[in-house]
Amino acid sequence: MFLMDLQERNERLFYKLMIDNVEELLPVVYTPTVGEACQKYGSIFRRSQGLYISLKDKGRVLEVLRNWPEKSIQVIVVTDGERILGLGDLGCQGMGIPVGKLALYTALGGVRPSACLPITIDVGTNNEELLNDEFYIGLRQKRATGQEYTELLDEFMVAVKQNYGQKVLVQFEDFANHNAFTLLEKYKATHLVFNDDIQGTAAVVLAGLMAGLKFAGGTLADHTFLFFGAGEAGTGIAELVALEISMQSKTSQEEARKNIWLVDSKGLIVSSRKDSIQPFKKLYAHEHEPVKDLLSAIKDIKPTALIGSAGVGQSFTKEVIEAMSSINKRPIILALSNPTSKSECTAEQAYSWSQGRAIFGSGSPFDPVKYNDKLFVPAQANNAYIFPGFGLGVVTSGAIRVKDDMVLAAAEALAEQVTAEHFDKGLIYPPFSSIRKISANIAARVAVKAYDLGLASHLPRPKDLVKYAESCMYSPIYRSYR
Ligand SMILES: NC(=O)C1=CN([C@@H]2O[C@H](COP(=O)(O)OP(=O)(O)OC[C@H]3O[C@@H](n4cnc5c(N)ncnc54)[C@H](OP(=O)(O)O)[C@@H]3O)[C@@H](O)[C@H]2O)C=CC1
Ligand SMILES: CC(=O)C(=O)O
Ligand SMILES: [Mg+2]
């Protein structure tokens, strides 16, 4: 609440504070605290921090967009609040997420605050507690679905392009997966769209895997991956890993998918379930007997990497981590679910149950852990490493579309910035304290891809794209007026 007030009162000071104390303040502006802020958003609400577009605005969405005082927008983060972190449907109160993500766009990626627009689309909520909460700030009705939902979203996407042109980046955030994949597929050919939960998460995890392998040895193709959670994050990561393997080992993506397995709420995804699962899971329905629980899946599949993205806290039990540690000398264990209460295990559990052998990362931050006299610094495997730099690269190159190759480039750029020194401490990412440098490097690599693919409209192409990205970054300094 204090930081929200400061952001409102003295934006420059807010960003100065954020940038100078990023490791301390990230857990407040972002996960885990932002989750709690969204849950309580109605009762801590003081003034609007973003733009709300509701079902009632149908037919005049463009007019509503034009009410936003800033005209020169480069990045929109939009949610409909249906899957806020691992906390479920928080309706309109999900606004904390676009606001928090965009604060990171500025603090971590250097996109000007005035060029950032947080939007929440209010189509109702199915969260009974919120519907009965006198302080709930959104429409008091069940979620609109089907044609009513699709028409509002379509009107929004058309209005965005009409108002801001085709170079505004629209980041979809925390939509439920039954809409997220469809929206990305529908608009990726006509708009500059990026789904952070699918693509940003994929890039950060791939980067962590590549960095880990650089020091632990081996290639991605040597590994067997088991995902606990087969939604946006799980299948998004799986697809990018398969793409990278296919490029590294010159095989087909289909071949690469054979070493990637996923578990959802009904157990291991296997071929006998093919007719009853959502389309985004089908590519991973391999031949295997049905398996109901995670531990049995681990014993059968013998994965080298276990990646949690089911939003189920404490699902990596002692038995699960011990099973991973009995199969692998250095088990890779990523507990991606947010916020901390949904983390599959804590850093302390991962290190102690694996006797200090786990290569560990988590979506929400954990403090360093001392185990057998060694201090382990857990990595934060969070898309916050990717989207600020990715967005900076997209907007500074004037890219008009997002392509998978640009997402891969972001992952490679992040992985390259991990040193042996980081890895020795337990890190598979560089520390957030150097995030602006990291973001400039990611931006440059994304821009290179955009230029190479003929998608960049900022011409002529700057010679040194890292320097160019840095020169475009907003810095919260007071100018001298004398
Ligand atoms: N660290 C990071 O950067 C990121 C972390 N996340 C986190 O990942 C989590 C999931 O996000 P997302 O993928 O978008 O969500 P989705 O809703 O798209 O996917 C959740 C998946 O988990 C499965 N699941 C749910 N309950 C269980 C259970 N008891 N046992 C096994 N599987 C289960 C679901 O199964 P079914 O399909 O059968 O319903 C579904 O496949 C969230 O906590 C989110 O905060 C997300 C993005 C980025
Ligand atoms: C980090 C993020 O995007 C999520 O948990 O949804
Ligand atoms: Mg998200």
UniProtKB/TrEMBL annotation:
GO terms for biological process: malate metabolic process. Belongs to the malic enzymes family. This is Malic enzyme. InterPro entries: Aminoacid_DH-like_N_sf, Malic_enzyme_CS, Malic_N_dom, Malic_N_dom_sf, Malic_NAD-bd, Malic_OxRdtase, NAD(P)-bd_dom_sf. Its cofactor is Mg(2+); Mn(2+). Pfam families: malic, Malic_M. The active site is at 30 (proton donor), 101 (proton acceptor). SMART domains: malic, Malic_M. Residues 198-451 form the Malic enzyme NAD-binding domain. Residues 7-188 form the Malic enzyme N-terminal domain. PROSITE patterns: MALIC_ENZYMES. One of its GO terms (cellular component) is chloroplast.
